[in-house]
Amino acid sequence: MPDVSKGSSRSECQKSYDVVVIGAGLAGLEVTRRLAQLGRIVLLVDAKQDLRQRVHTTGIFVRRSLEDFSFPDELLGPPIRDVSLYSPSGKSFSIQSPHCEFRVGKMGQLYSRMLEDCQSEGAQVRLGTRFSGIELSPSECLKAVSSDEGYDIALQSANITDRIRTRFLIGADGVDSRVARALNLSQNKRMIAGVEKVFESISNCEAPRMHCLIDPRLAPGYLAWVVDDGEEVHVGVGGNPQRFSPVQALEEFESWNRRWMGVPCGRLIEKRGGRIPVGGLLPQIGSPRGLLVGDASGAVSPLTAGGLDPCLRLSQFAAGVVDDLLDGNLNDITKLYHSRIWKRRFLKRKMLRTILESIRSRSMIDFGWLLLQTSLGRAFTQRIFFGRGSFPDSPFHRITNEDSQKLVTAFPGQLRGMDLGR
Fold this sequence. Notes:
Blueprint: E1 16-22, H1 26-37, E2 42-45, E3 60-62, H2 63-68, E4 82-86, E5 92-96, E6 102-104, H3 107-120, E7 124-126, E8 129-134, E9 151-157, E10 160-171, H4 178-182, E11 191-201, E12 209-213, E13 224-228, E14 232-239, H5 246-261, E15 265-277, E16 286-287, E17 290-292, H6 308-327, H7 347-358, H8 362-372, H9 375-386, H10 401-410, H11 412-415
Parallel strand pairs: 1-2, 1-10, 2-7, 4-12, 10-17
Antiparallel strand pairs: 3-6, 4-5, 8-9, 9-10, 11-14, 11-15, 12-13, 13-14, 16-17
Helix pairs in contact: 1-3, 1-6
């Protein structure tokens, strides 16, 4: 067996890895890049042949992500500071932020660029490959990994199945995670379904704007949106899949846009669709043999369904935890990597989601519209759209200088490169 210790050379015919990451979305790419930077031998696996294909997310990056993470400026749309909200009867009001609150990423191109970054850091990549399963019994999944121990996973490319040895497995494989099932981790139950069309922008708007419709018929339990940043127009609906037909609702909403919002759309670029978990972080997202990040872990805001910032932050945290585990500095990953760390921060948003899902009539929205336009209502709306609480920082992101040395000693990989005491 090839040497899979930290810092060993990477062979083109490598069959044994420190970490295998399943899924090359934003979460999988981020955790792969960070682990490779830490010197780990990493294999990134994705079922798609081209990461620019079948993009599911609108790709809205919030201010916290733009401030704390680095993205190529040319792969982000113009800054968005203005949001307009609409009731089913066409009533509207707008809020504005002095900051750049949102930028829409050109996600297919961004994924491709991040993939190049992963490879430049030394990670290996297998596209057009599916994760089939692991060669462990349920009881073995719960045993702690030793410094030199690994186990086999099955990968399928076309009609060929081969086995790869890994010391640790990371599931970044979306809302229906196969890795979660294989490792007996929690799985998403509460979801919304969304569909979207992306058009060329022909508005030449000087002030890019996000338009949001709250309508329990067209978007039950969520909202419909038009995002026009002057380069692209994203028109979409999302909601409880048991209460509406997303495709039909999108057609109706396009007509609604023409009547009330009046955002013109140019050439159709692509269509997107998928499901988004809205139950919050799942109870069990880590085990001694593997862990979950991104949608697979439920790392999405329960209220707004914003998932890019959570997946970046959780992936950053996961990379450090895995690095410590493989170095032998962490005996039990489940004591550090679990949802209880962040659970309290999501309670209010989960309560608001329950209220939003309980609204069944358009008249209820129109009745509440007067409250939203009061000073208190506007402040509440601005907090929802412009607040910085989309996802908490990692547990070690803000600590005192007095504690930092103790934590560095206990978790050197986890804290490597983090801004202690900020």
